[in-house]
Design goal:
Blueprint lengths: L1 H26 L2 H18 L2 H17 L3 H17 L3 H29 L4
Helix pairs in contact: 1-2, 1-3, 2-3, 3-4, 4-5
Amino acid sequence: MGLGIVKGTELLTACARLVHSIVLQMKGENEMQSRAVAEMNAVSGKYDYKYLLGFGKRLEAMAAYRRHDIENALELLDASTCYFDEIGNTAMASSNTLYRYLWQSGKTLQRLCQALRKGPSD
């Protein structure tokens, strides 16, 4: 019985960390958000709780995107999508797919703008 209570308490704490991480992300408190996500991921990994693992990867992807680390952001987003697919959460998987397309199109647009700034090649 005691182990069940500990597991339940740890998972509730991880869920609270998820909400806390989202708030920190909105406030732009990146360092604190990174710590909260790491704590959430530790508990989620311990119990293989795929929903929180998926959300953790998603939050890490968004943080990487904000740092302009697009390649890493896309890898993390793909990992998140896999977790959501595993549990049949098509809404979150589809949302991640939408983010992926937006981020990729932004990357393509960025390359196009850089090419235009350089001017025509001789």
